[in-house]
Design brief:
This protein is an alpha/beta fold. The chain contains 7 helices and 13 strands. A hairpin with a 5-residue loop joins strand 7 and strand 8.
Amino acid sequence: MKPTLFILAAGMGSRYGGLKQLDGLGPNGETIMDYSVYDALRAGFGKIVFVIRKDFEQEFRDKVLSKYKGHIPVEVVFQSIDKLPAGYKPNAERTKPWGTNHAVLMGKDVIKEPFGVINADDYYGADSFKVLADFLRSVEGKKNCYCMVGFNIENTLSENGGVSRGLCEVDAEGFLTGVSERHGIQRVDGKLIQTLPDGSTAPFPEGAPVSMNMWGFTPDYFDYSEKAFIKFLDEHGDELKSEFYIPTVVNDLIDNGTITLKVENTPSKWFGVTFAADRPATVAQFARLVDEGLYPSPLFK
């Protein structure tokens, strides 16, 4: 059975200023998601599942999903604040979504095979999808064997401001021992720095492996996530801005020895639209990749 790619597309890009998931950045109006789907097809994924918000379903179907008809099976699931375990209700004043791992939980009923998880608004590069697909094929029928595609920090920076990345701690055998979210990472006066919670800055390790939210799981991950989400709601459910993140669950599963998580490194260079000012460079990058023959134009005919 071929692995599935699960694309997280429910978030509103607040810093970008709009629904960047639907922004046409390729030479023929292709979205970043289109390139991810194309790379996933080439890597051997057999199905795409999108998690979106119900309020832009029709626009999403018209602008995005219609392109893939005849190329690869596609399913859509929905993330909303009120999709909670039985007996739980959100704070009536809450407006913020529950985070990336809540989004992943929305796929439980439609994903029964090893699956990859990515962001909708990040370009990961063809090699990263090959690395991910190869790993997922190797764990078919297994449990508790996960992976993360690790990017060199140098390949993930924006020229227009600091970025948030998951700093990975990896043991001698290449397994993840922990991932911690770092913010405001950028190069200033030739030095790589990060912004600490108190607003001060500190060096960020050169060449460090970082997470770009590109994960590989087997379906047992859904059961672990459900249990972890109940614990999260018991502890943080009344908070207005608390979020249930993938690294939170992964770190706990690693710490208690339940899983192993291999860091599969890629030389791919990330780019995307973290900031509105990133858009012209991203458009130019896609045009260059097409000119070099790495992608057809249009992508899907």
